[in-house]
Amino acid sequence: xxxxxxxxxxxxxxxxxxxxxxxxxxxxxxxxxxxxxxxxxxxxxxxxxxxxxxxxxxxxxxxxxxxxxxxxxxxxxxxxxx
Length: 82
Prior knowledge:
Layout: E1 6-7, E2 13-19, H1 22-35, H2 37-46, E3 49-53, H3 55-80
Parallel strand pairs: 2-3
Antiparallel strand pairs: 1-2
């Protein structure tokens, strides 16, 4: 099913989303986050999300997720004093 995490190994999972614009991505991700954020958030932050459809949308999504990963790292450093 589109938007459902797929297991591609023993412990690694990936998420494939077919989208032509950023709104379509959020249309798939938002219900998954509401249903099970503990399972979906690590996938998003790990970079194991593949965007099919528009290359422009995929690049925009990648830029947003890189910013989110950097912010997550910054918060962890502050929280745990690394």
